[in-house]
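Board notes (copied after class):
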Amino acid sequence: MKVKRGVRPRHLVAGVCVLVALTSLTLRIRAGLARDALPAAIGAKTPAGSWTLPEPRDYVLYPEVAPGEEAHGPERIIALAPSVTETVCALGLKDRLAGRTQFCQYPPIITSVPVVGGIMDTNLEMIRALEPNLVLTTFNSGGLNPKLEALGLRHVSVPHESLEDVFVAIERAGRFCDRPATARQLAAAIRADLERLQRAARALHDRPLRVLIVLGELPVPPATVWVAGPGSFLDDLLRMTGHRNAAADILQTAHGEIPLERLVVLDPEVILTFPTVMPTPEDMNELYGSWSRAGAMQAIQQRRVRAVGGPEWLSAGPRIAVGLHRLLSALAEYR
C-alpha cells in the first residue's frame, strides 16, 4: 500500500464523519477481519503486567432482549445508516431488517439483507417495494425524510454525533421499535462498560497527553488533515481515557480541517488514525519521513502514530465501549 497524497474527505463537513468512515467499509470487509484485533503492539496488559483492561460486551453481536419484549417490534425495518443498523441489532431485531445501506456491514450476518443505496443515493422505489413498517435514519439525512414522508412511510430520525447522542438514539429507536425496556437495559449496560473502562484508564498513564484523532488515515503533507474536534463522540471517548484532544485548541466544531502549518504548531504528542487498510512498517517509515520534512512534531519524531482500527470505528453506535477499549489499547504504551 502506498500512502495516498492529498486525501481530503470533504463530505465530513455535512456532519458525517460516519459517512467518511464507512464509504470504504466494503473494501475492509473483503480484505478480511484480521484488523479487528486490537492494535498489535498492545495486549490486555501493559508491558509491566500491572494493568488489566476489562473486555466490554459487543451488544450488536450478542443482544439481550428484556423479558416480555421478544415478540415486540415492527416486522420489517429499514435502517439507513451503519450506527442505526447496529442499534437495531443491539435491540435484538436483526431478523426484522428488511433493508440497509451498502455501508451497513456489521454484524456480518446482515450482509444478506437487501441494499437500498446510501444517504446520498437512496433507492426510494426499492424502499417502497420492500414495504417497511419503519424506516430509521440519522439527523444528517438531509432531504431524505421529506421524501419518505411523501411515500407515506413511517420513519424516525436519531442523533449520532456525540457520546450522549448514542444513548438518545438507543432510547428513541427502542421506543419506536416497541422495545423500551430492552433499550433502557442496553443503555445501562453500555454506560456500565464505559465506567469500568474509565476506572481502569486511571491506572494507565502518569500524565495526560495531547492526542490528535485523524478521521481516516494520516495523509502525506502538505495535505490538510481532517480531525475529531470537541463535541464529537471520539472527543468524549478520548477524555474518558484521561488524555486531551489536541485539536480542541483551535477547533470549535465536532470535526474539521487543520492545515499543515497549524498542525505543526499544535505539535500533538500522539496521533491516532482510522485507515481503510492497515499500513505496513514500510508505509509507516515513508509516512514518518514525509512528515519529518514538513516540520518538527513530537508524534512524528517519537514515532507515535497509531492505527486504532478501520473507518467503521468512526460510527457513534452501540459499540462505543468497544471503541473506547481500542483507544485505551492504542494509548496503553504511552504511560
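Comment from the instructor: The first helix runs from residue 17 to 22. The chain has a mean pLDDT of 85.
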